[in-house]
Design a protein that fits this description.
By secondary structure, the protein is of the alpha+beta class. It contains 8 helices and 4 strands. The chain has a 4-stranded antiparallel sheet, covered by helices on one side. The protein starts with a helix and ends in a 6-residue tail after the last helix. This is RWD domain-containing protein 4 isoform X5.
Length: 195
């Protein structure tokens, strides 16, 4: 079989195997992504495999440059290296060498799923945004002035705003004498003792 026929057969197999799997994504007929781990898992990562013209006789291109994988290197900011990504790619390349000449995309995705803990053993996830900012601030000097958050005003409905506007002047203040007693009206009514 030619390389194109092998690729067509593998493409059909991948589509049937991963139909309905949210972790799998076909970017093009020769490029695929698979998320290893669940959404929200701090040790989850994304593998992208692209086939070359002569795949499977030649190795596919394996990449971990997706934006999803940026959290892997956050811990290693102070080292300026992506050791975790490099170790994952090295282990996947070993699996490629073993399977060279055969359809291996499914095999690589399953290998990564099965050995996720082993692949991510050197990754120490940062659990909060505050921790991430602390790590980054240790490495980079604080050049931007810190911005102060303003207290948000209470949101009023249209009817509430209209009612408030009817009671107050254009500045939001109550008019002068709003709580005064009408003296003339009070003098006409008199007291209860007069009757």
């Amino acid at each position: 079989m030619s390389a194109n026929e092998d690729q067509e057969m593998e493409l059909e197999a991948l589509r049937s195997i991963y139909e309905g799997d949210e972790s799998f994504r076909e970017l093009s007929p020769v490029s695929f992504q698979y998320r290893i781990g669940e959404n929200g898992d701090p040790k989850a990562f994304l593998i992208e495999i692209s086939w070359t013209e002569t795949y499977p006789q030649t190795p596919p291109i394996i990449s971990m440059n997706a934006f999803f994988n940026n959290t892997i290197d956050v811990y290693l900011v102070h080292c300026r290296s992506s050791a975790v990504k490099q170790s994952i790619l090295a282990k996947l390349q070993e699996a490629v060498e073993v399977n060279l000449g055969t359809a291996m995309t499914y095999t690589l995705f399953e290998y990564a799923k099965d050995s996720k803990e082993q692949l991510m053993e050197n990754h120490h996830p940062v659990h909060s945004a505050a921790s991430i900012s602390n790590i980054i601030s240790v490495e980079t000097p604080n050049t931007a002035p810190s911005s102060k958050k303003k207290d948000k005003k209470e949101q009023l409905s249209k009817a509430q705003k209209r009612k408030l506007a009817d009671k107050t002047d254009h500045k939001g203040e109550l008019p002068r004498g709003w709580n005064w007693v009408d003296v003339v009206k009070l003098s006409k009514t008199g007291s209860k003792d007069d009757e």
